[in-house]
């Protein structure tokens, strides 16, 4: 991957979850050497620090389980605007969570910029969960389970979340690594057009064929690709630093293979790295792995396959 201009932005939000610690995620990525790793690959990297949202007073929701609504609404409003602005000023914005609710702000902001360029927006959702709940269907009330429903235009967010600056059509969303899906989300997937590859399919088919088919669709459409990478898509044996660990996730080799395929495609235009919880990590193991995976996505290789000198 030729040298890119990259801007890093932290979003230390944990109002979308009920497990403390992921607000320390952005600084853990920094401590693990994300900026240095990307600079070593020839990229021009600036760290813009952490976003600070302005307070929003969201309406009370009738679902008594919902919590942190005003905080999440404030983060979404701030991130939609700053993601749009950042995309205008660099090749690859990289957003550091915080919980996965940040994508309710980053994705619409990025999609707005893609609309300006008349490019369709695609999203590669790497997660153990589909995050397809609305405020009505969430049983936990944890709003990090709602971003995909929101930015794909599902009903039920008006008057609670900020107005969307842009949406992503469900058919432009590709999910890989799912293994924890609630009934309401299951029904939404079965009756919708999001492309889903759960861990059973990964076990049966591998990651390469479905991912390359999706990337061909993006390329043929002249699309922009946002990668939203949740730590919990990885197996907790290799990535313990996450508050929503689900056994049976991607292996080290599968994850690096995915990153290298994405890198080779040249299609990735923005990235979320989310749900890193340093409080639950083992001596920085997860943070270091995530930095290594991001480096693979941005061009780090064991050797250059194009040389043909093996």
> Which segments are poorly predicted (pLDDT under 50) over 5 or more consecutive residues?
none
Q: Report the C-alpha radius of gyration, rounded.
A: 18 Å
Strand order of the main beta sheet, please? Answer: 2-1-3-8-7-4-5-6
The end-to-end distance, rounded to whole angstroms, is 21 Å
Q: Label the overall shape.
A: globular
Do you know the CATH topology? Arginase, Chain A
Return the CATH class. Answer: Alpha Beta
Beta-strand residue percentage: 15-25%
Description of the structure:
The protein is built from ten helices and eight strands. Helix 9 (252-265) links the parallel strand 7 (224-230) and strand 8 (268-274). With 310 residues, the protein is an alpha/beta fold. The chain has an eight-stranded parallel beta sheet with strand order 2-1-3-8-7-4-5-6, with helices on both faces. It starts with a strand and ends in a 13-residue tail after the last helix. 52% of the residues are buried. It has helices spanning 25-31, 34-39, 69-88, 103-116, 147-151, 183-190, 199-205, 208-220, 252-265, 285-297, and strands at 5-11, 44-50, 92-97, 121-126, 173-178, 195-198, 224-230, 268-274. The protein has a single domain (5-301), classed as Arginase, Chain A (3-Layer(aba) Sandwich), CATH 3.40.800. The radius of gyration is 18 Å and the shape is globular. The mean pLDDT is 96.
